[in-house]
Each structure stands twice: as structure tokens, then as C-alpha cells.
Known about the structure:
- The chain is mostly helical and about 60 residues long.
- It is about 90% helix and about 0% strand.
- It is built from one helix and no strands.
- The protein is rod-shaped, with a radius of gyration of 26 Å.
Amino acid sequence: MKKIIYILIFISVIFEVKSQNIDTEIKYLIKVNSQNKDIIKDNLRNAEICAYKLIQNPDSFK
Length: 62
């Protein structure tokens, strides 16, 4: 009976640690996703500026 209790406690500790790792991973991925969205917005804005300059003065990019 004691062995079963020890095994159950051990398993519960393993699941708790695993769930904490998953929570940390989710928070990290959400942060990375947010940063990637900001980078994409900046890149699109830079592309828009380059396209506008190219339309205004096509010879400047030769």
C-alpha cells in the first residue's frame, strides 16, 4: 500500500513539473509570436516605403 502511495505521489510530481514546463513554453511562444508580428509589420512598412520611392524615382534603384 505504501508503495502505491509513493508511486502516485511521484507521478503527480512528474505531471506538475511537466505542466509547469508546458505553461512556460506557451508563454514563450506567445511572446515570440508577438515579436514576429511586429517584425512583419516593420518589414511591410519598409517595403511600402521602398515601393513608393521606386515609383517616384525609378532611376535611383539602378
